[in-house]
């Protein structure tokens, strides 16, 4: 039975020590490893090294591994542990990093510097402190994801679904969030300087103590958003935005919605 498609046994977790240095065979790269080829432990260790497009790596422990610049589009990492995994420059378009049945992908501290996560599903994922500067994350789904303290400077999150995501203290300087869905998101203390939220939905979001110097909210939905003690200046763009009291901010509406 092909272990990459079989469901008859549980897949084990393997840490860095268990898999680093193991040979990646031609059979592994083509996804044709057979259960009979090795004991379960060895087969599972190889399974968790199938770093190819559309590989099934769910529940694998990839702690500390170097996956920089790899083509991992469409890969299934549901429930995987990616603590301090280096995914800088990796191509993860359409990857599945979401939780299922309370099982969540642990990407805390992972390095996604310049990675491509277009259309990736990170629903419920733990991304606390992840490094995601310059990442391409258009149309990404990260509903209820924990992005506390994540480094998202210059990240492209256009049309991303970040509903109820926790972005407390996240670094989003110069990030692109045009048309993003941040309904109910927590952006308390986040650095949003010069970030672009044009046409974004921030209804019910928490922006308390956030830095919004020069941030663009043109035509954004801020109905019911909490903005206590946020750091706003004249260069914050609010024209066309629907304000917390449901008034539309008129042109030029910079720095305040009077």
Structural write-up:
The protein has 258 residues and is largely without helices or strands. It is built from 3 helices and no strands. It has helices at 16-19, 26-29, 40-47. The longest helix is centred in the first third of the chain and has 8 residues, at 40-47. The chain is elongated, with a radius of gyration of 21 Å. The protein starts with 15 loop residues before the first helix and ends in a 211-residue tail after the last helix.
Write the layout of secondary structure elements.
Layout: H1 16-19, H2 26-29, H3 40-47
Instruction: Tell the overall outline.
Output: elongated
- Main beta sheet, described? none
Helix content: under 10%
Spell out the helices and strands N to C: HHH
Radius of gyration in whole Å, from Cα? 21 Å
What quaternary form is this?
Answer: single chain
Extract low-pLDDT stretches: 1-39, 99-103
Output the number of helix runs: 3
DSSP summary, beta strand count? 0
pLDDT averaged residue by residue: 82
Report the sheet-strand fraction. Answer: under 5%
Distance between the termini: 68 Å
**Secondary-structure content class:** little secondary structure
């Amino acid at each position: 039975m092909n272990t990459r498609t079989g469901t008859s046994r549980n897949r084990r977790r393997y840490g860095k020590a268990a898999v680093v240095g193991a040979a990646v065979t031609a059979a592994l790269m083509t996804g044709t490893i057979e259960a009979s080829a090795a004991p379960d432990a060895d087969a599972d260790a190889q399974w968790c090294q199938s770093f190819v497009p559309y590989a099934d790596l769910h529940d694998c422990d990839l702690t500390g591994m170097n996956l920089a610049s790899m083509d991992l589009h469409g890969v299934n990492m549901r429930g995987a542990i990616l603590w301090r995994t280096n995914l800088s420059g990796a191509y993860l378009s359409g990857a599945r990093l979401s939780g299922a049945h309370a099982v969540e992908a642990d990407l805390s501290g992972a390095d996604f510097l310049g990675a491509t996560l277009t259309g990736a599903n990170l629903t419920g994922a733990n991304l606390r402190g992840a490094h995601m500067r310059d990442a391409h994350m258009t149309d990404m789904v990260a509903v209820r994801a924990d992005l506390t303290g994540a480094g998202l400077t210059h990240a492209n999150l256009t049309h991303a679904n970040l509903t109820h995501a926790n972005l407390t203290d996240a670094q989003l300087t110069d990030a692109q969030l045009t048309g993003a869905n941040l309904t109910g998101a927590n952006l308390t203390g986040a650095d949003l300087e010069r970030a672009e939220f044009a046409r974004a939905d921030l209804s019910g979001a928490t922006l308390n103590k956030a830095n919004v110097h020069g941030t663009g909210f043109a035509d954004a939905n801020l109905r019911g958003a909490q903005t206590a003690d946020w750091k706003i200046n004249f260069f914050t763009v609010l024209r066309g935005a629907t304000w917390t009291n449901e008034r539309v901010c008129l042109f030029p509406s910079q720095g305040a919605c009077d």
